[in-house]
Amino acid sequence: MTKSKLWQRVLLSNSNVKLSLLPGIGGRLMNVHYQGAPLFFENPDSLEFQPDLSALRKVPTRAKHLPFPLWGGEKTWVAPESSWPKGGPHPVLDSGPYEYQQISEMQVRMTSRICPISGLQILRTVTLETGAAGWFVEHALTNRSDTDRYCGIWSVMMVNRPVRIVCQTSPQDRHAVLMGNPSAAVSNTGEQIAVDCVSTDEFKVGTHPATRVAKVHFGGETGAIKLTAEASSLSTAQEYAHGHALEVYNSANYDYAELEWHAPAERLSPGETSTFSVRYKIAETGQ
User: Under DSSP, is residue 164 helix (H, G, I), strand (E, B) or coil?
Assistant: First the structure.
């Protein structure tokens, strides 16, 4: 346990992996250790910082052009980005404390407060597989307001570089450049897109994959560890708030990249819930 209550970790572990959860800072899965090595990025500049949700720009960061804290780890955002307040994710949902419940030795449930801006509430359930190098994150988004909300679940995972992120695609679903100039980092054959996140050039690309699977090769193209991230659903591109289901971001200020799965956007009536899940599995290259 760390000194601050907000930074107290909840650990789930088996003989293969250790999951480190941080309910007090946005209900995050803050890190995953495989054979003792951390796979996720944790921002050293904001470690142990006590956030004021009304003044999050005070959180220490080297990426001062981004109007929100970069805590690290894996978390739930709400799409579309165009609906974010002041250009950043909803503070209560992204940086506020979540209540957590230990369901079993292998499962934890974390529940946000109701966001006073959007009226939305997030529930995250993290399950570690018994005796396997795999885990499962279930996202639930509930409209607690008294009016309809157009929104979508956005699963964001920050991984340590260098990595190569790969998914299958179709010729009609070419990638879109969302930020920067990723031309040197992206290879798109029309059947597969590979994004090499190795440098400090900031960019972001979006694509609509042909399957529900994306793979993260740690160490780059010839890396020894492969993490498979399989989404629970995949619909037509038109059903997504950003026009595609998968996004990859490469940071200029820190040594990390992001794999971002989207769920289809929905118009949630008051009391209605949307769900989405991602299953993760680690394997050695060649397995």
Answer: strand
Give whole-number Cα distances, 40 to 137, 179, 240, in Å: 15, 22, 26
Domains of the chain: 5-160+230-281 (2.70.98.10)
The whole-angstrom separation of Cα 193 and Cα 168 is 6
Give the global pTM: 0.96
Residue of 267, 274, 271 whose CA lies nearest to 148: 267
- Neighbour-count burial for 256-275, b at 16+ CB within 10 Å, e otherwise: bbbbbbbbbbbebeeeeebe
User: Closest Cα partner for 276 from 125, 120, 99?
Assistant: 125
Cα 169 to Cα 214: distance, rounded to the nearest angstrom? 10
From the list 123, 92, 129, the residue with the least C-alpha distance to 110 is 123
DSSP states of 105-149: TTEEEEEPPPPTTT-EEEEEEEEEPTTSSEEEEEEEEEE-SSS-E
In this structure, what token pair is assigned to residue 258? 């992001």
Is residue 89 reached through a cis peptide bond, with omega within 30 degrees of 0 on the bond before it? no
Structural tokens at position 19: 């999951």
Q: How far apart, in whole angstroms, are the C-alpha atoms of residue 16 and residue 138? A: 21
Residue range 167-218, pLDDT digits in tens: 999 887 789 999 999 999 999 998 999 999 999 999 999 999 999 999 999 9
Residue pLDDT, tens place only, 234-277: 999 999 999 999 999 999 999 999 999 999 999 999 999 999 99
Neighbouring CB atoms inside 10 A of 173's CB total: 17
